[in-house]
Design a protein that fits this description.
This protein is an alpha/beta fold and 394 residues long. It folds into two domains: 150 residues, Aspartate Aminotransferase, domain 1; 233 residues, 3-Layer(aba) Sandwich (Aspartate Aminotransferase, domain 2), CATH 3.40.640.10. 42% of the residues lie in helices and 16% in strands. The strands form three sheets. The protein has a seven-stranded mixed beta sheet, with helices on both faces. α3 packs antiparallel against α12 and α4 packs parallel to α12. The chain is globular, with a radius of gyration of 21 Å.
Length: 394
């Protein structure tokens, strides 16, 4: 059997390309702004996670430039050995203070956070409880650990409770969930989760990649949103959304974070985050703290689009955040919608099986504080035109 046989027999992408509906790996030739350039044409960006619009903030870019001037372009090693710079430590201290946890630890990507943290915490005999719609990096982190994984129905805390009722109290347990689910845009029922987990003394970890900077009075995420910061043991975040860079972190008790620091393989054996990324994130956190009006504007834009799409007749599911899905049904409809919307000057992300169940394809749209009302109104006009073309709305 040829190992590459599966590669030679993979034709799904070719079929989509031949049909003219391929909407992945599109090349953008500008910054992640509300309007981007694709094939020399301006397109309204409704597919970015740049929620607060900070990737183009002058202070963020200047901080990155200054870091390169001082430290160079890279660290030439892992954090564990020669790769820790003083600004890495400064950012970890800043993040811990911002999230209101005793300590924080930075990784090179958000994906690596979940791979390293979950896998190093789970020993043989331990159990991790996962929402069925948890992000892929949570699932993979659980697979890498030596514990057993148990999945519960999406955001169904009654189902979690039933599964926890069967838990052997002699086995250590962890519940890991997304704070904001990245495709559906709904928020985890954290109060229900906390109540269910308390019955078995389970530790709680929240992946707040899409919540930090967006939810909570101060942008600290899902736990702050519900007033349950003291009930969540570990909070994970990424830099590639609201924090305008690339990387990720885990925050929690100092002893727990120190254990992760010395056991997470994705940290120990990966190159340290480059200076420019670290400095950009430091500045982004500072701006989030001093400019709450960005978050206010983000939510105004979110409400405008949610109401606009719903009034046109689109099904936006249970979204309660700046991630607003537009349910399309069959995969081919999602691809057609994405391509036609780009023709009309709007960028969206088609999400099809197996990322979602068959027959539940959707367009993932997401919004920025820096979108103007004109951008959003033009996008709604395009949705109306294209939605009617494919028969998705009357």
């Amino acid at each position: 059997m040829d190992l590459f046989r599966k590669c030679y027999e993979f034709h799904d992408a070719d079929v989509i390309k031949q049909a003219g509906f391929y909407s992945y790996f599109r090349t953008i030739t500008s910054a992640q702004d509300p309007v981007v350039m694709i094939d020399g044409k301006p397109v309204i960006m409704l597919g970015s996670n740049n929620y607060l619009g900070l990737t183009s903030h002058p202070e963020v870019k200047e901080a990155a430039r200054q870091a390169i001037a001082k430290y160079g372009s890279g660290c030439a090693g892992s954090r564990f050995l020669n790769g820790t710079l003083d600004i890495h430590v400064q950012l970890e201290e800043k993040l811990a203070a911002f999230i209101k946890k005793p300590a924080a630890l930075m990784f090179s990507t958000g994906f690596q956070v979940n791979l390293g943290v979950i896998s190093c915490l789970l020993d043989r005999g331990d159990v991790v409880y996962l929402d069925k719609l948890d992000h892929a990096c949570i699932i993979d982190g659980a697979r890498l650990g030596f514990g057993a994984a148990v999945k519960f129905n999406h955001n169904d805390m009654a189902d979690l409770g039933r599964r926890l009722a069967l838990h052997d109290s002699k086995r250590a347990a962890l519940v890991v969930v997304d704070g904001v689910f990245s495709m559906e845009g709904d928020i985890v029922d954290l109060p229900g989760l906390v109540a269910a987990a308390a019955s078995q003394s389970c530790k709680i970890m929240v992946d707040d990649a899409h919540g930090i900077g967006v939810l909570g009075a101060n942008g600290r995420g899902t736990a702050e949103h519900f007033g349950l910061e003291d009930k969540v043991d570990l909070i994970m975040g990424t830099f590639s959304k609201s924090l305008a860079s690339v990387g990720g972190f885990i925050a929690g008790e100092a002893k727990v974070v120190d254990y992760i620091r010395h056991h997470a393989r994705s940290l120990i054996f990966s190159a340290a985050p480059p200076p420019a990324s670290v400095a950009a994130t430091l500045k982004a956190v500072e701006i989030i703290e001093r400019e709450p009006e960005r978050r206010t504007q983000l939510w105004e834009n979110t409400h405008f689009m949610a109401e606009g799409l719903t009034s046109l007749g689109f099904n936006t599911g249970n979204s309660a955040t700046p991630v607003i899905p537009v349910l399309a049904g069959e995969d081919v409809i999602a691809f057609k919608l994405a391509c036609r919307l780009q023709d009309e000057g709007v960028f969206v992300n088609p999400i099809v099986s197996p990322a979602v169940p068959p027959g539940h394809a959707l367009l993932r749209t997401s919004y920025m504080a820096t979108h103007t009302r004109e951008h959003l109104a033009r996008a709604l006009d395009a949705f109306k035109k294209v939605g009617r073309e494919v028969g998705l709305i009357p």
